[in-house]
């Protein structure tokens, strides 16, 4: 199977601080990773597409200076929430797109990170 | 912009019942459609993936159908069990990459 991990699983921080969330594909290479955000009782909303070695593509309405994405290797993408505020509290989930031709259509999701900003 | 709607929002059934979850989407030019399961506070588990050229996929007690022209998909769960209790999410891809999710159906199967 294909496993994606996220770290940390849960983080609580003070308003104004920055928080980094890691997304790793453990047993496959992922040239493309996606970051989603989920509010309570709401659907997952795509925030950005993270491409290895290039700049991320952000969805409309997502502040790229606030949500910094780095995809420095084929197995790691990071999302940094800068100067976090209580309204940034949410469940953040990443997914990784497997790069092999035999399984091009499946995204594998991480377990999510619960961010609470006090 | 692709809009994905899931009905019902919540469903409670006694153990053993067969049930159907519904998903509709506004843009029929999809690449594929996936059904996921999400347990409270957890990530997503992919259940079934249907390519745009396919009509249905089956895995164990689960069967998902796709009617692209009408913009609909259903997830059929046979002989439901308490362990099936979770939120079921439908997601559509127009490009083969990013997914557009519905809000999910929260399922409770009572013993």
Break the fold down into its secondary structure elements and pairings.
The complex is a heterodimer of chains A (118) and B (111).
Chain A: E1 4-7, E2 10-13, E3 19-25, E4 32-38, E5 44-51, E6 57-58, E7 67-73, E8 76-81, E9 90-97, E10 107-109, E11 113-117
Parallel strand pairs in A: 2-11
Antiparallel strand pairs in A: 1-3, 3-8, 4-5, 4-9, 5-6, 7-8, 9-10, 9-11
Chain B: E1 4-7, E2 10-14, E3 19-25, E4 32-38, E5 44-51, E6 56-59, E7 62-67, E8 72-77, E9 86-93, E10 100-101, E11 105-110
Parallel strand pairs in B: 2-11
Antiparallel strand pairs in B: 1-3, 3-8, 4-5, 4-9, 6-7, 7-8, 9-10, 9-11
* Largest sheet data of chain A: 7 strands, mixed
Order of helices and strands of chain A: EEEEEEEEEEE
- Rg calc of chain B: 13 Å
Structural class determined from secondary elements of chain B: mainly beta
First-residue to last-residue Cα separation of chain B: 41 Å
From the spread of the alpha carbons, the general shape of chain A counts as: globular
Distance between termini of chain A?
A: 37 Å
Please tell me the overall pLDDT of chain A: 89
The percentage helix of chain B is under 10%
What would your notes on this structure say?
The complex is a heterodimer of chains A (118) and B (111). Chain A has strands spanning 4-7, 10-13, 19-25, 32-38, 44-51, 57-58, 67-73, 76-81, 90-97, 107-109, 113-117. Chain A is 0% helix and 52% strand. Chain A contains no helices and eleven strands. By secondary structure, chain B is mainly β. In chain B, the strands form two sheets. In chain B, strands 2, 4, 5, 9, 10 and 11 form a six-stranded mixed β-sheet that branches. In chain B, strands 1-3-8-7-6 form a five-stranded antiparallel β-sheet, with no helix packed on it. In chain B, a hairpin with a 2-residue loop joins strand 6 and strand 7 (62-67). Chain B starts with a strand and ends with a strand. The A-B interface holds A 6, 32, 34, 36, 41-46, 49, 91, 93, 95, 97, 104-112, 114 and B 4, 31-32, 36, 41-46, 49, 51, 89, 91, 93, 96-104.
């Amino acid at each position: 199977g294909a496993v994606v991990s996220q770290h940390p699983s849960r983080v609580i921080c003070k308003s104004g601080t920055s928080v980094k969330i890691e997304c790793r594909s453990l047993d496959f290479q992922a040239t493309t990773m996606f970051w989603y955000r989920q509010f309570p009782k709401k659907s997952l909303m795509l925030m950005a597409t993270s491409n290895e070695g290039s700049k991320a593509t952000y969805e409309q309405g997502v502040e790229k200076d606030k949500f910094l994405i780095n995809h420095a290797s084929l197995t790691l993408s990071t999302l940094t929430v800068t100067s976090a505020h209580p309204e940034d509290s949410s469940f953040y989930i990443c997914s990784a797109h497997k790069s092999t031709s035999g399984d091009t259509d499946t995204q594998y999701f991480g377990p999510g990170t619960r961010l609470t900003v006090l | 912009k692709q809009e994905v709607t899931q009905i019902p929002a919540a469903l409670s059934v006694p153990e053993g019942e067969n049930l159907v979850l519904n998903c509709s989407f506004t843009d029929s030019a999809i690449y594929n459609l996936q059904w996921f399961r999400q347990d409270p506070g957890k990530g997503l588990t992919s259940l079934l993936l249907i390519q745009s050229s396919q009509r249905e996929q089956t895995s164990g007690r689960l069967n998902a159908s796709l009617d692209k022209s009408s913009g609909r998909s259903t997830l059929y769960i046979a002989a439901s069990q308490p362990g099936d209790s979770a939120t079921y999410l439908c997601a559509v891809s127009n490009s083969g990459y990013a997914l557009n999710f519905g809000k999910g159906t929260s399922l409770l199967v009572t013993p």
